[in-house]
Each structure stands twice: as C-alpha cells, then as structure tokens.
Amino acid sequence: MRTVTVLATGPQALVQDLGRPGNAHLGVPPSGALDVPALRLANRLVGNPESAAGIEALLGGLRLRADCSCVVAVTGPAVRVTVNGRGRDSHTPVHLADGDVLALGAPADGLRAYVSVDGGLDVPAELGSRSTDLLSGIGPAPMSAGDTLPLGDPTGQARGADQLGSRPVPDEIAVPVLLGPRDDWFDRAAEQLAAGTWLVSPESNRIGLRLTGPALLRAAEFDSAELPSEPVVTGAVQVPASGRPLIFLADHPTTGGYPVIGVLPAAALALLAQARPGTTVGFRPIG
Amino acid sequence: MRLRRCGTDAVLVEVDSLDQVDAVRAAVSSAAERGDLPGLVELVPAARTVLVALESESALARLRDILATADLHRPARREQREVRIPVRYDGPDLELAAETAGLSVADLVELHSGTEYTVAFTGFAPGFGYLVGLPKPLVQARLDHPRTAVPAGSVAIAGEFTGVYPRSSPGGWRLLGRTDLTLFDPHREPPALLVPGDRVRFEVVG
After folding, report:
1. Which chain B residues contact residue A179 at CB under 8 A?
2. Rounded Cα–Cα distance for residues B191 and A139 (Å)
3. What are the residue ranges of helices labelled H in B94-155?
4. Residues on chain A touching B48 (C-beta within 8 angstroms)
5. Among B10, B50, B196, beta carbon nearest to A233
6. Which residue of A has its CA nearest to B52?
7. pLDDT tens digit string along A4-31?
8. Out of A77, A114, A249, B119, which could bridge A42 as a Cys pair, Cβ 3.0 to 4.6 Å?
9. Which residue of A230, A249, A286 is the best one to mutate when testing the B interface, meaning the one whose CB has the most B CBs within 10 A?
10. For residue A282, what are the β-bridge partners?
11. What are the DSSP calls for A191-245, one per residue?
C-alpha cells in the first residue's frame, strides 16, 4: 500500500476534503477545507479530482516522509517548502522519492497551507467525507507524529499548467455580506455593519471566526427577544448576546439560538480562512 | 409563511408551529423525491423554521413555487419510519419528574412509554432528535443545575420535547432512563437512528 508518514504536525494538521454537506438535518456540520480554492488547486496540481482529501496544516511545521514514490503540491499562503532540507517551490507539483522528507516552514502571512498527494489520502470516509470535524468528532482524529496515512491510486497526471502563485493575505479584509435572515432584529443593520470595523480574535477556530469590536445593537422591539433555535449556514454572521459578531466556518453547529444578521458568500470565506488574529475585518452589506 | 434570505442560495422558511414546520419539510422533501427540485443540498427543520439550501441561486424560483402550493394545514403525510427504543426506566430524575407530574413513578413510566412521538428536528449534537408529542404532565422545566456529563443513551424530557442523548455530554434535561441503542454511528448506514419525520415509541425493559 502506498503511504506517507507524519513526522511532525506543527500546531495542527487535519485531513480535509470538501466536507459532508447534506447532513445538517442529522445535526452533522458540513466540515471540509476552510480555504476551498487552495485545496482544489493542490489537488489539480497533483492530478487528483478536486474533491480528494489532503492535509490542512495550520501555521507550518508539518513534516511528511514519503514511503513510496509520489507527487505532492503545497498551496495556500506563501510558505517555505523543503525536500530533504533543500528549498522547493510551493504551488507546483513536487516529486518525492521513497524516503524523501517534505517540510513546511511557517507562512509569512495567512494561517493554513494545503498539501495534496497524488491518489489522495485514503483514510476511511464517514458520511461521505474524510474530513476531520472538530466540533462533533466525526472523521479521523487530528494528525499526530508517527501516523501513517494511506494513499489512493493516482488517477491523473500531475501538471503545473494551471499553477498560480500564492496571493498575499492582507491585514485588512472587507467582505460582502448579504443581509438576512434576521437583519430586521437589528437597528439599521446595514448602517451598523458598514460603519464598524472588527478584529479577528485569537479564540477563532474552524467552528467560527470570533470578532472583537463594536457591539451590533438590536432594534427596540427585539431588544430582549428570544429566538427559537434555527438552522445556520456556513458564512452566517451570528450576533450573540454580547453583540460581537461571529462568522460560522465549516465545523459550525447546525443550529443556533442567536439571530444571524447576514451571510457571507462562499468566496469571502476562503480569504477569512487565512485571517490571522488581529486582522481587521469590515463588512460591505448588500440589501 | 415567511421566506427569509440566507445567503445567495438558501432560504429560511419561517412558520408558526411545529406542525407547519413538518408540513414545509414534507412538501420540499417530496418535491425533491419527485425530481421537482433539483440541486437540494440541505433540508433542515427546526422549531419554527426550515432551512432549504440549494446548489445554486437558480433553483430558488422553483422552491418559491413549491412553497406557494404547500398546504400548511394538511401536512402531506409521506411514508414514516417507526422506530422502537427499549428503555430501562431507572433515571436519576424519575422521581422528580413523577412528583412534578403528580403521578406515581409507575404511572409516569406508563405515560412516557405509552405515547407515540415524532422526530421534529435534530440539533445540539449529531443524532440528537427533538421528539414531540409529549403528554401534558410530562412537559416540565429543565433542571436548575445542568449536569456536566449526561451518559450516552440517556432518555430525557425538557419543555415540550423528549429525546435521547447520543453521546456523553453536558445537559439540563430530566433523565428518565437509558437505552443501549446507538443513536449515532458515522460508520453505520444510516448513521442516525432518528431522522426528522420518524415516529418513535419507547418500550419498557428490565
């Protein structure tokens, strides 16, 4: 069996694919890669279907040993990539011989690198996905040094044709937000969202991006209203009792008891997946 | 019925009661089964809302047509599964619940196990179903002091709901007993024992 072995994980290394949407009615979060375009690109570069499982590595420090001849690609923010200590490029297919060691340095900006291996990580799927769901514990446990990861059979040719370099991650991000479903619970929702700026809190994780900054104020008639728990989508901007917004990411709970003032489009979430604590976030409300 | 936008490709349908939630869920589900709503990604009922998420914005018009013709007062009864859950009624809150209900423990057990429930929605944890149909005397407040760990399989009541904890977790529901059934197992097909719309009966064992 083709495998790679994890020698070091860095702060966190997870198996991620495109997740398991379609199970929210069972209470199961969608999960999946936070920076979806980066995982898709890494898979294309090594000749995998875009939906194959790869590694989501938080803040570098990942070291992998190839136990067979294989092709890997590293995507996401700019990061130093080495093979057996010699520098190689990210965002391009890299061949590893049996025994070669791939290592990721810490990214200069951003948070999450993606590593795809030809054939994809062939750990057992749960509810149609190999993703680790940190909220409900579905999928494989976070990686540990010494783990051996099985690979599937390569299905396509590695190619560098559509390679794109890394894009810098800005330290100020403005994201569009479609108002609703509960913007009417807030006093002039669009104005409040447009006027404020928030900072990404260090308490953010794959479940949600917590923001610090101004509290969003409710309209008078909803001041002390209680919301029966209702379903929540990825990208929802939920406003808990504190008034500080929380953006739901892939491992979010399927329901919530606080009003959602607006929802971010999927394209904005890839950028926020790379937003370090301290990044400034602004909203461009769309009515 | 009120439609609330939820991003580019989803809608939150807001209604007035759990019965109407069930009617909306059934109408959308049967439209999808008939092939009238291609690209349905998520159909998630909750207490007063149903989330309908679609693959693309273009299916939203189709969804509006389906909802416009749904009869909220006469739910389209589709085929329902019936699930039986064996329970040992030996929970730590059994006497408290009986006292609150003004019943003997034996009568409380008979009442809880003699009633048919429906899975209204899930939430809180994978496989945690909120079951409705609870007889009036069993509609009781949560515990003043929630437990930090409720054992997996605990059968419990809170407010208008009864349910079973799929795994050990904190919880404030009143615990009536336990079942040995596995409520959720991601390696099983289907993974969840209880799905919205299922009819459920608890059976006394031991």
Report:
1. 5
2. 13
3. 94-101, 105-113
4. 228, 230
5. B10
6. A231
7. 999 999 999 999 999 999 999 999 999 9
8. A114
9. A230
10. A174
11. HHHHH--EEE-TT--SSEEEEESPPPPBPGGGTTPPPPPEE--TTEEE--TT---
Positive or negative: CA dihedral B59, A133, A229, B166: positive
Structural contact between residues A238 and A264, judged by C-beta atoms closer than 8 angstroms = no
Q: Which residues, other chains included, contact A219 with Cβ-Cβ below 8 Å and sequence gap of 6+?
A: A184, A185, A186, A187
CA atoms within 13 A of residue B2's CA, in its CB half-sphere: 11
Amino acid at A155: T
Place of tokens 């730590």: B92
Q: What is the mean pLDDT of chain B?
A: 93
Please state the rounded mean pLDDT for residues A110-114.
97
Tokens 């990721």 correspond to: A104
Q: How many CB atoms lie within 10 A of CB A141?
A: 10
- Residues found in chain B: 206
Residues A60, A79: Cα–Cα separation, whole Å = 8
Q: Are strands B154-158 and B161-164 parallel, antiparallel or unpaired?
A: antiparallel
Contacts of B191 in chain A (CB under 8 A): 26, 28, 126-127
Whether the model clears a pTM of 0.80, i.e. scores above it, the answer is yes
Q: Does B102 have pLDDT greater than 90? A: yes
| pLDDT band, residue A244 (cuts 50/70/90) | very high
Question: What is the predicted ipTM?
Answer: 0.93
The partner residues of B119 in beta bridges, in order of sequence, read: B131
User: What tokens appear for A183 in the block?
Assistant: 């913007």
Q: Which two tokens stand for residue A128?
A: 């149609």
DSSP A68: S
Residue A13 Cα to chain centre, angstroms: 12
At A249, list the tokens. Answer: 């990411």
Amino acid at B150: V
Here the tokens at position B147 are 């437990």
Helix or strand or coil: residue B30? helix
- Write down the pLDDT at residue A141: 97
- Residue A107: half-sphere exposure toward Cβ, Cα within 13 Å: 24
Beta bridge partners of B174: B157
Are B175 and B155 within 8 A, CB to CB? yes
